[in-house]
Design goal:
Largest sheet of chain A: 7 strands, mixed
Order of helices and strands of chain B: EEEEEEEEEEEE
Structural class of chain B: mainly beta
Number of helices of chain B: 0
CATH class of chain B: Mainly Beta
Distance between the termini of chain A: 36 Å
Distance between the termini of chain B: 41 Å
Number of domains of chain B: 1
Strand content of chain B: over 45%
Number of strands of chain B: 12
CATH architecture of chain A: Sandwich
Shape of chain A: globular
Number of strands of chain A: 11
Radius of gyration of chain A: 13 Å
Largest interface: A-B, 23 and 24 residues
Number of helices of chain A: 0
Oligomer: heterodimer
Shape of chain B: globular
Radius of gyration of chain B: 14 Å
CATH class of chain A: Mainly Beta
Helix content of chain A: under 10%
CATH architecture of chain B: Sandwich
């Protein structure tokens, strides 16, 4: 049971480039989330999804896009990379019962230069 | 609106001593409270949760947390710290009445356990 898998683990981008951060989970969880973690700032929610075909914005969605075509996959797209998007990105999932914890991937460390 | 505060950026304890990592929260409905731990270059790992019932919740690796409704606190505790407990700890809250899609995380507290 792999849990939540994120790829790549590390990436360096130039300003203006685009990329997709991949996230897949094998636990059949309906809810999936993307967070960014900046030093001393905790986790900020970028986008979330409550099921295939349904996505919604979190606290900091500007500069990002998501899609949810299957239950398993929830990719995060950066269209025009900016230095402010340098961060560690975490994907998480959970079942829809409200009292259950989230399961996290190990993150993607992204630097924009 | 939901919020959670971890008032200490860092906690230092000696191995074998008890440890406490503090957390206070604010929700309009019934709180679902969680503690997570993060080791270097890893994602967050679930430690324990409070949903309802007993105010003292036991979790993984010997950790426990005390829910105090009047003080709106959910402090993480361990009777005897280990060097291997050194990590970043996050408190999180979800509003049980507000449809629970979103979880709000604290800024994190770094725990250093000295041998």
């Amino acid at each position: 049971n792999a849990g939540v898998t994120q790829t790549p683990k590390f990436r360096i981008l130039k300003i203006g480039q685009s990329m997709t951060l991949q996230c897949t989970q094998d636990m059949n969880h309906n809810y999936m989330y993307w967070y960014r973690q900046d030093p001393g700032m905790g986790l900020k929610l970028i986008y979330y999804s409550v099921g295939a075909g349904i996505t919604d914005k979190g606290e900091v969605p500007n500069g990002y896009n998501v899609s949810r075509s299957t239950t398993e996959d929830f990719p995060l797209r950066l269209e025009l990379a900016a230095p402010s998007q340098t961060s560690v990105y975490f994907c998480a999932s959970r079942i829809s019962q409200d009292n259950q914890p989230q399961h996290f991937g190990d993150g993607t460390r992204l630097s924009i230069l | 609106a939901q919020s959670v505060a971890q008032p200490e950026d860092q906690v230092n304890v000696a191995e074998g001593n008890p440890l406490t990592v503090k957390c206070t929260y604010s929700v309009s409905g019934n709180p679902y409270l969680f503690w997570y731990v993060q080791y270097p270059n890893r994602g967050l790992q679930f430690l324990l949760k409070y949903i309802t019932g007993d105010n003292l919740v036991k979790g993984s690796y010997g950790f426990e947390a005390e829910f105090n409704k009047s003080q709106t606190s959910f402090h993480l505790k361990k009777p005897s710290a280990l060097v291997s407990d050194s990590a970043l700890y996050f408190c999180a809250v979800r509003d049980g009445l507000a449809g629970g899609f979103k979880t709000i995380f604290g800024a994190g507290t770094r725990l250093f356990v000295k041998a």
